[in-house]
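Weekend entry, working from home. Most of the wet-lab plans are on hold until the incubator is repaired, so I used the time to fold the two sequences that have been sitting in the queue since the last round of cloning. Logging both here for the record. First:
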Amino acid sequence: MTGAIQMLGLRLRPVLTAICLGAAGAMMSAPAFARGPEGIADVAEKVIDAVVNISTTQNVEAKGGDGAEAMPQLPPGSPFEDFFEDFFKNRRGPGGKGGSPRAHKVNSLGSGFIIDASGIVVTNNHVIADADEINVILNDGTRSRAEIVGVDKKTDLAVLKFKPEKPLTAVKFGDSDTLRLGEWVIAIGNPFSLGGTVTAGIVSARNRDINSGPYDSYIQTDAAINRGNSGGPLFNLNGEVVGVNTAIISPSGGSIGIGFAVPSKTVSAVVAQLREFKEVRRGWLGVRIQQVTDEIAESLSIKPARGALVAGVDDKGPAKPAGIEPGDVIVKFDGKDVKEPKDLSRIVADTAVGKAVDVLIIRKGAEQAKKVTLGRLDDGATKPVQVSTKPSETIEKAPAQKALGLDLANISKDLRNRYKIKDSVKGVVITKVDEGSDAFEKRLSAGDIIVEVAQESVSNADDIKKRVDRLKKDGKKSVLLLVSNATGELRFVALSLQ
């Protein structure tokens, strides 16, 4: 993916460039099928009064090195250098000397939409983040002060409320799950502070993960969205909101036809909780999960590779009393298929706290059904799987055994002290990793502890050597290791036997 992912809030006024067509270009007209469905104009007319501009103001104190306001950092040779230099000299007074720090206001513009005629507005969190004052501007120019009902940083959503002076137009959420690739959608917002602007395009992709948060599942569209469109709605041809425009990929900051919207299924659930609780209450399973790679799938006899591999179970989490264990692969949760770890994270988060759900796992090649009553996610309750990146170390003593490109030794008091291994951690210590080995590529390192080999616990280095030799003899292509770090955090690693 090229270009930079950018949030769409607007802070600077753009320089407009006119593009002229030659005579031939001016005479050309697009065929009817290229102009899109005729219903776009009807939808736009029906919903545009529900789309609002969001204007925010933030008070900022800027200081230079001598206490004066700081001049913006500009590229060398910028045509604005002289302008800003003169401007800041005048601000500083005679001689260009700085005085006491001055507070100045920074304005930001974005978009939003009304979902309740009482004055409830949905927008992006990044549009109103750190704002000292928020105003909602209706399509006819009416301006009203707004207050924050609640925000959710993980999905970049916010709910605002203002007191309307007259009847409002509100829009409803549609079902983003029914969107099809190639389906027409309409974006309305406030690009570059131009005011209510309608653009149209198609759904280019669904369930996009752009690594902006833990629950990414964006709708991708080629409808033109730009800076200032943040928080604006993406409509289907029924005039229903199917997404909230949030980010674009662009090397220049302008639209290149790759925009992303939070799907309405996510938005509606988050908004409902923000309105009711002023916060989002997400379900919690109490497991650490990782990807089921082809090698891991082969080791676990899972075809095709799918699901979320349980790398660790929280002792106080809901999964433990339900009988879920490290090494289990969750393939279905509450009736929904789990193709990869991100799927499970989203499904669990969207499930009501306290709900009893059916979970289908694969354990040692066989499916098992479990019943779990979800807890409530605390942001500090779980951690992602951490992969050690520390360099390999050598120890003075010779290794007790060698296998898989690893020097292995039984845990001793000396090794516990050397690698600061907790007393509760059991297994076989890795004392050296051969460079160029598969283990080195998988980021195993000295001080890691092998707890299981092929889902069987190990307590000495000879056990590992024997089990690896047996797997090779049986024609296995890879071996699955359960590895712990010094603090007891677990992860699975599949190493090639070839």
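Second, folded right after the first finished:
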Amino acid sequence: MDSGRPGLDAARAVLERYWGYPAFRPHQLKVIGPALAGRSVLAVLPTGAGKSLCFQVPALLGDGLTLVVSPLISLMQDQVRALARRGVPAAYLNRTLSREDRAAVLAAVRGGGVRLLYGAPERLPGLVRWLARAGVRVGLLAVDEAHCIVEWGHEFRPVYRRLGEIRYRLGDPVTVALTGSATPAARREILEVLRLPDAIEVVASFDRPNLRFEIIRVADDRERFARLRRAVRDADGSVIAYAPTRRLAERITRALLRMGTRAAPYHAGLPLDLRRRVLLAFLRDRERVIVATTAFGMGIDKPDVRRVLHWGPARTLEGYYQEAGRAGRDGSPAVCTLLWHPDDWRTTTGVHAAMRAFVERRRCRRRVLLQHFGERLAGPCAGCDVCGGGSQ
């Protein structure tokens, strides 16, 4: 990839041709410029900042294949479909493909007909071997939702801890790792795992002034159900409600349906085709409320979510902010409400100390969140249940 002004001019032309935008956002330029110049980048940009374009545009300008590591099947399928609608040659490899479809994708990759190839991390070791045999060079490696290296890589999906080795076997390509939230310690761990000691770090502000944060202690689950139903009823638009278990997600959904609300559950226990239909119904406003377990929402482009509800604490503060940050991506006011009871610390395993302190201590919610990510709140809080103000 060429560095300098011509690269950025070409990138702007690609942006306008395929996406119809006249200019990049400032933080996108801070990622795309170095990537075009051959530098690896770790980008920590808030929800709605346009992270995907930071690797999709360079993919159309560089030599070789762009390989995208994506953690969720629904996420990679959504992105590939969106790219196909814009005329961008992209494909994915995951367990939903038949043997014939997989062979067709690999043939297109071998023939140079695919510029972006999405794959789950578990498929990478075998894919790397196939790429080497087929003589396909990877010019750019994109690690989407890179916080999964820290959150999932130790036990749940250990292949994330091998991404540095996989990079080496791919020939040490330029790498763009992206996430919506990561503490300074998490950023160091991501770069260590990926073996990117000289990568450029682009970190935007974590503050989302349009979001109001509120934490409500409830006396029992009866009150928690009542408050959740009231919050859904009062929300002016789409809602995501996060539940800690599949069973509870189903139970909450039934309660919302009984009050006449268009709602649907979303969790890994549902068939893949049903999850896909539920997601599309939510994106197209045929379902008003999604009641989901934690995996839902990663990379989902639904800008007008007006409320995010949590039935109890998330396991980590990073996870909570990822989920809460799916509200208000359009910049309009939105509310993030967490309903909790002291018994949650017993029933929710592995809750980190920072999450517990965030819930129990009555300090400015926004200030605590920003401090956790290594940032100081420069002015007054834009809205939380401790400070007041913000969206109601």
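Plan for Monday: verify the second prediction. DSSP finds 16 helices and 13 strands in the chain.
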